[in-house]
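From the methods appendix. Each design record in this collection lists the tokenized structure first, followed by the designed amino acid sequence. Records were kept in a plain field format so they could be parsed without special tools. The example shown here is representative of the layout used throughout.

RECORD:
FOLD TOKENS (272 positions):
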């Protein structure tokens, strides 16, 4: 979860349930209980991970709705549900990237934050159609996932990436045509994404640079979903033990959707 996009985590978690298919269970009821227990454990790994929550619940619900009479039937239903969920996640990500790529114009200077496979795929698709880009990439401290983004973009012919520290985004935004970020989830009128997204979106709005967020429509959830931030180890921020002060290391921040110009998903383009 600390080094991969949310869609990748959702797929890996779904595939993790396949381990149950190799185990023996005396009754259907015991198998279903094991499935529910493992899915619940995976969901608890990050209660605020929208894709993880929805995909795990969908798998369990599909098996229960199948009302299997034997353990083998329950396993077959699980296998089919996992494949359906994975296909849905991966196809949605591809469609969202295609919709975003269609909005990118040759010669644009872009700025992206953190590591989003949807944003990366969109840039690669646009380059495949002949576009060329200069891309500023924030480091996304303290995990420095922006370095991973920069390394990927450096392998794409037609893209000139420049890695910058998070605090330098305001310096380079006047040169940019668009800010592109992924999403962990959107709940109501709030985008939750990697920490640093909020100040970036606010600064971009002040600088008159459009902000576009892209991801699967499954990440747009109802107000009943309660987002809980993940506060990580202080050791990610400072190596030596802090003496006389506290260290706060939130993983995500909340960006009002009024600061966004476009939300691009597999279902199309929406203006908040």
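DESIGN:
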């Amino acid at each position: 979860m600390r080094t991969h996009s949310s869609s990748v985590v959702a797929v890996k978690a779904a595939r993790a349930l396949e381990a149950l298919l190799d185990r023996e269970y005396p009754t259907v009821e015991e198998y279903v209980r094991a499935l529910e227990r493992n899915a619940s454990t995976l969901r608890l790994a990050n209660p605020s991970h929208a894709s993880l929550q929805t995909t795990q619940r969908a798998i369990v619900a599909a098996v229960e709705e199948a009302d299997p009479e034997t353990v083998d039937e329950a396993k077959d239903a699980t296998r089919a549900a996992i494949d359906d969920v994975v296909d849905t996640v991966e196809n949605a990500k591809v469609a969202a990237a295609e919709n975003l790529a269609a909005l990118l114009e040759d010669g644009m200077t872009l700025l992206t934050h953190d590591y989003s496979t949807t944003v990366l795929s969109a840039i690669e698709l646009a380059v495949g159609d002949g576009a060329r880009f200069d891309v500023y990439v924030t480091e996304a401290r303290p995990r420095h996932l922006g370095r991973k983004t920069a390394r990927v973009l450096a392998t794409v012919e037609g893209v000139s990436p420049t890695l910058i520290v998070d605090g330098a985004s305001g310096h380079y935004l006047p040169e940019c045509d668009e800010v592109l970020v992924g999403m962990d989830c959107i709940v109501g009128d709030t985008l939750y994404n990697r920490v640093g997204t909020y100040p970036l979106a606010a600064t971009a709005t002040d600088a008159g640079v459009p902000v576009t967020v892209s991801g699967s429509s499954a990440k747009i959830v109802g107000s009943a979903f309660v987002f809980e931030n993940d506060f990580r180890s202080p050791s990610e921020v400072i190596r030596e033990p802090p003496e006389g002060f506290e260290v706060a290391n939130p993983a995500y921040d909340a960006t009002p959707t009024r600061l966004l110009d476009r939300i691009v998903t597999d279902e199309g383009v929406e203006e908040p």
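APPENDIX NOTE: The helical segments are 6-16, 28-44, 50-66, 71-101, 117-128, 145-154, 169-172, 197-207.
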